[in-house]
Specification:
binds (2S)-piperidine-2-carboxylic acid, Ketimine reductase mu-crystallin, 6-stranded antiparallel sheet, EC 1.5.1.25, alpha/beta, globular, Rossmann fold, ornithine cyclodeaminase, domain 1, binds nicotinamide-adenine-dinucleotide, 2 domains
């Protein structure tokens, strides 16, 4: 199933409810219905290359959904100037009965859309009512999918973007459909913002708590290794911290591990009603990406692809 197939078949209006259900199932530890270990990571760092690279394996079994899958995802921090994507991914969908491979699928569209979909769910649950200003830090693939998901799901009055290379932010502004304000600094972008998405390849904090307004919601998508940061300690300590997977965050998130804060709840706990949504406080959703998100997205694509191709 190609990238083009996946792009044509995946839509936020169908994807987001499935992601919400999957996050809820993942966090309801009562049954063994969902099996999704923390991602296995293999570094593939070349001696002469100064940028970090890894391969992540993300196997998942969802019994009631009849999904057995694994994603193979490479994150290559290639540095400025490369035209290749930072994330390349393939999802393998298997038949849970036989163990045979059903489909080998493009995983890049799935990764972009399910990550933005999960962040949109976090905003739906955790941002203050009447949120008007969205700020996006970073202007790469995830920034774009977040822009698309957030502008489709919510009605922000203003969308601001920041990139450490201003020309990249200008390019982003020209490539999207709606109005976007390009900001010269992170501080300018997040000043008074109700919702902030951090989607950079930075390994050092880019967002500082002193700039974040009370009650703001932060969807933190980058910094997916235990020694990488996007958020500073002030922000992490001031915020109520939610994660997609608590176990994942304790192993993979530098923002959580190095700040020493506790994950208050998983997003699925809020969906299940077992933990409150502290909309009145600064909230951080620390997203690392989960196999269950890929599994339900891949099933959605595959079922539609199958129906389409069997009608040919
Ligand atoms: N949580 C998840 O499920 C998930 C899924 C996919 C990607 N990610 C992460 O999201 C981040 C963005 O991924 P992407 O696919 O959009 O990558 P990308 O390469 O397309 O975009 C990265 C952006 O970060 C900017 N950037 C690079 N170095 C920076 C620095 N030092 N400081 C500030 N900005 C910098 C780049 O200019 C670019 O705009 C990565 O960290 C990636 O690992 C997370
Ligand atoms: O869950 C994922 O697909 C990503 C890939 C890149 C790094 C972080 N997590």
């Amino acid at each position: 199933v190609t990238e083009e197939d996946a792009r044509g078949l995946l839509h936020y209006r169908e994807l987001i409810p499935r992601l919400e259900e999957a996050l809820g199932k993942f966090s309801s530890r009562e049954s063994a219905e969902v099996i999704q270990p923390v991602r296995s990571t293999v570094y593939c760092w070349l001696k002469l290359v100064h940028f970090s690279r890894f391969l992540g394996l993300m196997p998942t079994y969802m019994e009631n959904d009849g999904v057995l899958s694994t994603k193979l995802v490479c994150f290559y921090n290639r540095g400025a100037g490369s035209t290749l994507p930072s994330v390349s991914a393939t999802v393998v969908l298997l038949d849970p009965e036989s163990g045979n491979v059903k489909a080998v699928m493009d995983g890049e569209v799935i990764t972009k859309m399910r990550t933005a979909g999960a962040s949109a769910i976090s905003a739906k649950l955790l941002m203050r009512p009447g949120a008007e200003v969205l700020a996006i830090l970073g202007t790469g693939q995830q920034a774009l999918s977040h822009y698309n998901a957030f502008t489709e799901m919510f009605s922000f009055k203003e969308v601001r973007v920041w990139n450490h290379r201003r020309e990249a932010a200008e390019k982003f502004r020209c490539s999207v459909g709606g109005p976007v304000t390009v900001c010269s600094s992170v501080e300018e972008a997040v000043n008074g913002a109700d919702v902030i998405v951090t989607a950079t390849r930075s390994t050092e904090p880019v967002l500082y708590g002193q700039w974040v307004k009370p009650g703001a919601h932060v969807a933190a998508v980058g910094a997916c290794r235990p020694d990488w940061r996007e958020l500073d300690d002030v922000l992490m300590k001031e915020a109520v911290v939610y994660a997609d997977s608590r176990d994942g965050a304790m192993v993979e998130s530098g923002d959580v591990i190095l700040s020493g804060v506790e994950v208050f709840a998983e997003l699925g706990d809020v969906i299940n009603g077992t933990k409150p949504a502290h909309r009145e406080k600064i909230t951080v959703f620390k997203s690392l990406g989960m196999g269950v998100e890929d599994a339900v997205s891949a099933k959605l694509v595959y079922d539609q692809w199958k129906a389409k191709t069997s009608n040919l």
